[in-house]
Amino acid sequence: MKRLFIAILLSLIVIAALIAVKNEYARFLPSAGLGMSALVQRGHIDNLFIGASTFRKGLDIEVLEQMQQQSYILTYNGNQPVLMLMQLEYLLRNHVSIGHLYIDFYPYTVAQTPSLSDTRLLADTDTQFKFELSRQLSQTPNQSISDRLTQLYELFVSANNTSLLWYPIYRKVNLSRNRNGGLLHMANQTGSTKEHLDQLPHFGKRDGLQPQQMEALARIIELCKQNQIQLHFLEIPKYHLLLQDPDYIEYANTIASFIVDTAKDDIVIRADQVAPDTTNPAFFSDLVHMSGMGAHAFTQALAKKIGSI
Amino acid sequence: MATSLLFTILFICGTAVVYYIVPLQLRWIVLLVASTGFYIAIEPLLFVIAILSALWTWWITRSISISPRKSYLAVGIVPVILSLFVFKYYNFFCHSAAQFLEKLGIMLDPAVLKLAMPIGISYYTFKLIAYQVDVFKKKYTCEPNPGKFLTYALFFPQIVCGPIQRPNQFLDQFKNTTRFNVHLFDCGIRLIILGLFKILVIANQIQPYVNQVYSRFESTSGLALLCNAFFYSILIYCDFSGCSDIAIGSGNLLGIQCPRNFNAPYFSKNIHEFWKRWHISLTSWLRDYIYIPLGGNRVSKPRQKLNVLITFLTSGLWHGANWTFIFWGLMHGIWTILSPRPPKIKADEDTGTTKSPGRWSVAKAILSTIGTCFGVTIAWIFFRSENISAAFRYIWRMFTQLRISAQAIQDAVLPFSGDNTSIYIFLTLIMCLIVFGIFEKKIISNPKYDDKPLPAAWIVTFLVLTILFGKFGQSSFIYANF
Questions:
Q1: Statement: residue B333 has pLDDT above 80
Q2: What's the complex ipTM?
Q3: Domains defined for chain A, CATH in brackets
Q4: Using CA atoms, how far apart are residues B241 and A58, in angstroms rounded to an integer?
């Protein structure tokens, strides 16, 4: 039994070392064409889009690349203002200079308690970031000890292990699908049908706008002012059924007013100021996400708008 | 809460500390208190039912031991079976009877009982029956101490998923005078690590995949359905045997030895062998308390076949109150009847050794193993489906829609996470399954390791894989539902 305990102890030490190395140095792996580490390696960007999957599926990088300026789409699934603020702070801490910053204006993310749904963010950042993230997530109310332990385990131990184990394949697959953070070959991807979209369920119960998320929006505005970054909040078009949702309308109006009041400037670009037809089912893959075709059309309109800003 | 893995492990560790502090003759009290606490943590009211059944069994077996009459045995067993029937089967039989009568034009509104099934009722009921029968047959003398008997009946590591340990295997160990059995403790730690690996790395990773594919199998490709069928076979094995390993390992930590419940069943070359390797404690229980009392092999061939069928139907019914389980039992029963018993390997009369198998024999053995595994996998589809018709539709679609293309492969892998990380989860899972398969073949199915602790190198490998790739926080314990 003594031998077993020694073997277990040694393997735990090796695992601890491996995990420490992963948490600090995984971000230095060769870029896979997306995420924060690729952006940090670049050092400067003219147009940076930070958002959730709505941005990834709603912006066509190939259209943005046709502009004279450099663009990068930084997205993580379920990205929320609290996380977007942390990403911005991390980029600034790592000396990334940003010309124009476009933040995802998606009201329902402001109505969520802070949570991490895309662990890819952890592979792109250092240990300090993970500790800060852990602190933010620990403030979630009604969290049981078991939930908290599971969360800590995921943050510091298990996150990204599978993709890091197969990193050469992971990188190759992502490089073939992504460039400058955006998806490639979107223009020809058709969307859904009216029948399909009409039968999709609306989202469940929401508990109002979360103070932590609202504070994060205010802090993003403040940080951009301090660093002389041109800030815009950009709403990606949603299927018209969602835009008619009373919750959505109420939240969107409240957040837009809050941003304008805090920034003392109208920096919100609503979808209807840019958008193609939100009733066209071919432009959407579900109620929230655009199809490749929709993203192409929207980004073309947006590029003109950006040019005029 | 009590079925969560973290709670179970912490509870076992706490109990082990107290267990080794108290004097030898009082240890059973620690186990009894811990078992009571564990059961109450699950559901206090259900504990009352379990303890009443156990006390009834202890009381009646005292009479049986003095005067072993069949009527006493019947009086002892019937209430225990009745409680199992009421909690587990009453609603099912009422609904089935009402449906049958409806077809005959008789409309009945079945009186549905809104009762939660006590966790582990199927396991402790079988333990109690075994005890009564063993005392009746004088295989075991009645335990005079009700406390020790309750410790056997309600032993907490075996509550959730068994195994169904026999009274003589358990109660005799209280006569043991060893203060601390290092060998047993060592074996226990190794088994717990193996169990955690099976549940956290394999079962928990497959569980969401299986749930997703079964929930929308009518619109899933044939290849995905085939993969899912195999994944479910692996899931149910790893989930159940992992839980058994943790239960046996925990028992070992507390000084209680328990025989192995699984022996690399998917390496069986025929269905007879499969049932000697799968859920051994249940299979041997059914053999000793159903098949042999029915006449076993000592009756005419047709009667023998009927006995096999009855035994497998009982096995199916034991797993749950649904026609799918009964059909699953029937399938295995028919398969066992139709499958010829393999001849026993005879040793060479002169040298006393067996001949090494030729190439053809090896190929035949591999094909038989694959065939048995495939047959068992098909039977699991009935076990998992909501109803028999859904299972047939699943199988029909699986074969008629089977195409191999890049798109079909992508669709088959995607349900792991629903996004492009699925491929890495899939590759990691396959890697872990290969490691586990080699371990099962080389170690578990090797009789040399029957009484030895599992090799440390393998255990460390499993520990590392569990820490790095384990999926925590959502253990299902499929067999806890039975």
A1: yes
A2: 0.86
A3: 35-119+170-308 (3.40.50.1110)
A4: 47
